[in-house]
Amino acid sequence: MPVGYAVVGLGNFALDRILPALMRTRHSKLTAVVSGDLNKARRIGAKYGASRIYNYDSFDSIKEDPDVDAVHIALPNSMHWEYTVRAAKAGKHVLCEKPMANSPAECLNMIEECRKNNVKLMIGYRVHFDPGNHEAIRLIEDGAIGYPKFIMAAFSQRTTEPDQWRLNFNLSGGGALMDIGIYCINACRYLLDNEPESAMGMVSSTEPAFAEVDENVLALLQFPEGILASVNCSYGTRRVDGYVVDGSEGWIEVRSAFDYWTPREVSLRRGDSITTRKFDPGDQVAAEIDYFSECIEANIEPAPNGLEGLKDMIIIESIYRSARDGCRVPVNYQSVASAA
Predict the structure, then answer these.
(1) Radius of gyration of the chain, Cα coordinates, nearest whole angstrom
(2) Fewer C-beta neighbours within 10 Å, C or N terminus of the chain?
(3) What is the DSSP code (8-state) at residue 305?
(4) Mean pLDDT throughout 269-288?
């Protein structure tokens, strides 16, 4: 039988991506919606065929609901920790959107609570299910560019709406780095299949809209064997989206690497030859949800799990600390070792 999901939080991402994606899955189904606005929850539930309606106060009662096997948390970042822990205590598997939480300590507690209650925890890295990014990883693993030396990853978009929760520090925990820069950090990690050892960061905000959060972030990451990566993200510029991996024998460029809808262009250069392939991004969210359902059904650990989310938060914290202190800082993975 399909795995039954409760979608927690009915903001734009849930309405535009998660709920439509659930209608296209093969191993998953929507059984409940959770919102602070019961009238909205009833309306959305009726539209998508959800048989159960909950608000935040009644959320814990999903423990008694046999039709809810898992929850998909699509709340503001600051609420990820609380609702993951509450879902785990209710015995429900958790698919939580990225960033995993607002601090490594919260991430660690989420992992511990899910393990203690014998439920699975997956973090919503949808681009892990994108064929264009898979192709870039394959090319690197096959030695198409020789030894990687340097990565340049960038993701920017204009985000200035005054009522946008992402611009409220208490809800978001940070700005461009937390929201979209995390895609670049995670890409550097999966492209190299390794973790950065140190970080340097610079942060700036140039408009009143970004009084509480970072507008622009430039970070440098050093990986083992001297490989370097630059991460650039901004809430104040028009869309920039992609990465370049420079190697000893050539380079790979992926354009539109992180969005939902644009065909990926994956270019490979070796010598004087450049070849480019296009990949349809497909429905990454539907693929992600069905993958998690298959992990639940087969009782296997999902690949983008809590440790993946914890590592990104440790790196983000290191970048912010570097920007604050004005120096290069080591990335300390001690909490990962304790959670592994």
Answers:
(1) 20
(2) N
(3) B
(4) 95
Q: How many residues does the chain have?
A: 340
Q: Which of 29, 92, 98, 120 is catalytic?
A: 98
Average pLDDT for 108-123: 98
Q: Which of 54, 183, 235, 320 is catalytic?
A: 183
Per residue in 84-106, pLDDT (tens digit) is 999 999 999 999 999 999 999 99
Pairwise CA distance, residues 253 & 276, whole Å:
9
Instruction: Round to whole Å and give the CA distance between 336 and 105.
Output: 11
Contact between 21 and 286 (Cβ < 8 Å):
yes
**Per-residue pLDDT tens for 186-234?**
999 999 999 999 999 999 999 999 999 999 999 999 999 999 999 999 9
Residue of 340, 306, 303 lying closest to 128 (CA atoms)? 303
Joined together, the tokens standing for residue 234 give: 């901004």
Tokens 């030695």 belong to which residue?
Answer: 143
- Looking up tokens 């001297």 gives 226
When pLDDT is averaged across residues 116-123 and rounded to a whole number, the result is: 98
DSSP 258: S
DSSP bridge partners of 233? 155, 217
**What are the tokens at 27?**
């191993």
- 316 phi/psi in degrees, rounded to 5: -60, -45
Q: Could you confirm whether 183 is annotated as catalytic?
A: yes
- In 3-state terms, the chain is what percent helix, strand and coil (to 5)? 40, 25, 30
